[in-house]
Amino acid sequence: MDRRTLLKSSGLLLGGLTLGRFLTGTANASQAQTIATTGSVTPLSPPGESHPLLLNFNENAAGMSPAARQAIVDALSQMNRYPDAARETLIGKIAHQHQVEPGQISLGNGSSESIQASVQMAVFHAQKAGKAAQVVVPDPTFNYAELYAASLGVNVVKVALTDKLEFDIASLKQAVARFDGVSVVYLCNPNNPTATITSSSQLASWVTSASGDTWFIMDEAYAEFVTHPDFKSAVDLVKQGHKNVIVTRTFSKIYALAGLRIGYAVAHADTLADIEAFMSLDNTNMAGAIAAIASLEDREFLANSLSSTNTARKIVTDALDELKLEYLPSQANFIFHKVPGEVKTYQQRMKEHHVFVGREFPPAVGWNRLTLGTPQEMMQFVIVLKMFREKGWV
């Protein structure tokens, strides 16, 4: 089940949440900066119906950059104009950040649209050449590539993660090798829902040895959170001239612009031109583009956002260690941890205590994805979790 369907079915938007809940970015951004500079964490009041803990959709609870918010306010008088100039500026800044040409950047309505257009492009070229197409994905992973493939009538091959819940690279390669046609391989790195990385050397080795009928969509939605030395962005593969590599990024996560829907793809200029044919026109709104520009320029905010996430992660992992609950090493803004008993029961009990946690991701049965909120929010989560232990629920 994808995020939008889950929202409709869970009653989340009807469960006492008011607009005010979504307008607290200023306070949270200030809290994140205080934590980053002083290391102090002031507990919040317990979660309640009017202020639940939203730890289920990998959003950035610290809120957007104050500079981004002010940039939107300052640009309100321009909202009657089309966003062409803002788009061009944003593309230039993204290109500069990755040290590529502007013609290698494609803006999307979130990274979701970039993933969709990339799948459509690869399938279209396969069909045009009279070849069959398939989409190969690890399982579990972020499911939008497979949803878009299914809507095109393209077969999706799911390759289960290893016993350590890592990408089974050998089996993924086999799924491609035994197919007579074009394969689109979707790899989310760090992976969602596990928050773990696959080493860049493994991926580079595969890309450089792959046939011309293999496309790679490298989803790096959480790349800015990664601190592990084994990770290197697949943008490097693009810069080496590999036309079959498409890297997708988003401003939804560390930049906290999920509601403004700004994402982008990085690829060879020829590949990008083909992808653009499947992108919607004028798909970037003025407010989103301006906020993204300001966010890229606000290095202090980026550092504070990362520091806040790292502090929140430590609060949770310390508690999981104390309770002896297994978890995977996280390189993102969420943690994948074991839950004794049924995950649905755990999820429902958390909801009854005004804490919304992620769902189960079969075939990884017995594991729960927990979004990292602010350090204060995670302290409240730990209080609830320890209370669950006292009741014998975890």
From TrEMBL:
Entry-linked InterPro entries: Aminotransferase_I/II_large, HistidinolP_aminotransfase, PyrdxlP-dep_Trfase, PyrdxlP-dep_Trfase_major, PyrdxlP-dep_Trfase_small, TAT_signal
Family of the protein in this entry: Belongs to the class-II pyridoxal-phosphate-dependent aminotransferase family. Histidinol-phosphate aminotransferase subfamily.
Domain Aminotransferase class I/classII large, chain residue ranges per copy: 53-381
Gene3D superfamilies, A to Z: Aspartate Aminotransferase, domain 1 (3.90.1150.10), Type I PLP-dependent aspartate aminotransferase-like (Major domain) (3.40.640.10)
GO molecular-function terms, A-Z: pyridoxal phosphate binding; transaminase activity
PROSITE patterns: TAT
Protein name: Aminotransferase class I
Signal peptide (from-to): 1-29
Record organism: Citrobacter amalonaticus
This protein's UniProt keywords: Aminotransferase, Pyridoxal phosphate, Signal, Transferase
